[in-house]
Write a structure and sequence with these properties.
Length: about 190
C-alpha cells in the first residue's frame, strides 16, 4: 500500500472540514449522508462557502437488527424538525433528501460532488454499501470522508473502520484520520 493520500494540511477535527473545503476550492455541491439533528450541517454551512449542501437522511425508525445506534432512541419526526431548524438560517444553500442513502446516491450524477461526508448506518455492510455508492459521486480532487472510524462500541453496531480500510486498500490508498474518529482522503 502506498503512503497516505497527499494533503497539504491535516484536518484534526471534523469541524475543520468546512475551512479545508474552502482552502482547496471545493465549493460545488457537498453531500452529508446521515444528518441526524443537523449539528454538523450547521457547522458546515456556517463556514463553508460552497453552493449546495445535500442533506441525506431518511428520518425513520429501524429495527435494531438493521440499525443499532443510539440515534434510534429518539422520535425521528422530532429529529427531522430539529435538523430543519438548525439549517434554517442558510435557506437556499441546502436541500434535504429525506430518503435512504442508496436511493439518494442513485439520483446524484457521478463526478458531480466536491465532496461527501458519510455518517449513516455504520454496520460493516451498510457503510461498505455507502462507500461503494457515494465514492463515484465525488469528482477527482474532491474530498471523500466520513465519521465513526471505530469498531463495535456498546451503543452501535459500527464497523466503519473495517469497511473504510477495506475500500482504501482496494483503491491503493490510506485514509487520514482525525482526533474525532473521522476519516478522509482526496479522490485521485
Amino acid at each position: 500500500m502506498k503512503p497516505c493520500n497527499p494533503i497539504l494540511r491535516e484536518i484534526d477535527y471534523r469541524t475543520e472540514l468546512p475551512r479545508f473545503l474552502n482552502d482547496y476550492n471545493l465549493l460545488g455541491s457537498f453531500a452529508e449522508v446521515g444528518v441526524f439533528v443537523g449539528d454538523f450541517s450547521k457547522t458546515i454551512l456556517a463556514t463553508w462557502k460552497g453552493s449546495e449542501l445535500i442533506l441525506v437522511d431518511p428520518y425513520k425508525e429501524y429495527d435494531r437488527s438493521t440499525y443499532f445506534d443510539s440515534t434510534q432512541d429518539r422520535d425521528q419526526e422530532e429529529v427531522y424538525r430539529q435538523a430543519q431548524n438548525n439549517v434554517a438560517p442558510w435557506i437556499g444553500r441546502y436541500v434535504f433528501m429525506r430518503m435512504e442513502s442508496m436511493e439518494a446516491a442513485s439520483l446524484i450524477p457521478d463526478g458531480s460532488l466536491s465532496g461527501c461526508f458519510l455518517d449513516g448506518n455504520h454496520s460493516y455492510e451498510a457503510s461498505s454499501a455507502d462507500i461503494a455508492a457515494w465514492y463515484p459521486k465525488v469528482k477527482s480532487g474532491g474530498l471523500f470522508s466520513g465519521h465513526d472510524f471505530y469498531t463495535r462500541l456498546k451503543d452501535t453496531n459500527s464497523d466503519a473502520l473495517n469497511s473504510v480500510l477495506d475500500f482504501a486498500e482496494s483503491i491503493d490508498t490510506r485514509p487520514h484520520v482525525t482526533w474525532c474518529n473521522s476519516w478522509y482522503f482526496i479522490k485521485p
